[in-house]
């Protein structure tokens, strides 16, 4: 008398896909996160362009810090934000379209934007902190995505 408690087959090798039901659930969630990251890149890049224009046109909108180690002229910061923001928005568009190269480029550009916002922290502190937090999320969402 033998009783069968479970399947007697050997488990599949590590790294192989077994359940077809697991893949769509994971893919849908990650794809949604990448789409959301692409939209954040697009909108955040446009807002960075506007921030750059504000710094170029009106230096007195921002707080000035006289003894800041990474002090640049606000017009220089404006051009930095304008260029990086335009590139992030452009790459964000291609992330939304599903281009694989855009995810890698997006991680690089958003990282540059994060560093720029950190260095620009004394000039526009609250906005810089919000953008830094969003940039960390975008980098994470683009880094964990895996195509099937």
UniProtKB/TrEMBL annotation:
Q: Which domain of life is it from?
A: Bacteria
Q: Does the keyword Membrane belong to this entry? A: yes
Keyword terms of this UniProt record: Membrane, Transmembrane, Transmembrane helix
Keyword Transmembrane belongs to the record: yes
Which InterPro entries does this chain map to? DUF7144 (IPR055568)
Q: Which residues form the DUF7144 domain?
A: 33-146
Sequence segments annotated as region (Disordered): 1-24
Matching Pfam families: DUF7144
Q: Which residues cross the membrane?
A: 34-57, 77-96, 101-119, 125-145
Mind telling me what this protein is named? DUF7144 domain-containing protein
């Amino acid at each position: 008398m033998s009783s069968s408690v479970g399947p007697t087959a050997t488990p599949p090798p590590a790294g192989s896909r077994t359940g077809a039901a697991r893949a769509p659930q994971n893919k849908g969630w990650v794809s949604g996160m990448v789409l959301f990251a692409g939209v954040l890149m697009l909108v955040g890049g446009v807002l960075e362009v506007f921030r750059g224009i504000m710094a170029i046109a009106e230096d007195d909108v921002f707080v000035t810090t006289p003894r800041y180690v990474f002090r640049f002229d606000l017009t220089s910061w404006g051009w930095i934000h304008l260029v990086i923001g335009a590139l992030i928005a452009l790459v964000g568009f291609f992330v939304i379209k599903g281009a694989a190269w855009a995810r890698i480029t997006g991680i690089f550009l958003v990282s540059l934007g994060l560093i720029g916002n950190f260095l620009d922290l004394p000039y526009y502190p609250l906005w810089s902190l919000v953008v830094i937090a969003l940039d960390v999320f975008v980098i994470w969402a683009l880094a964990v995505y895996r195509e099937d």
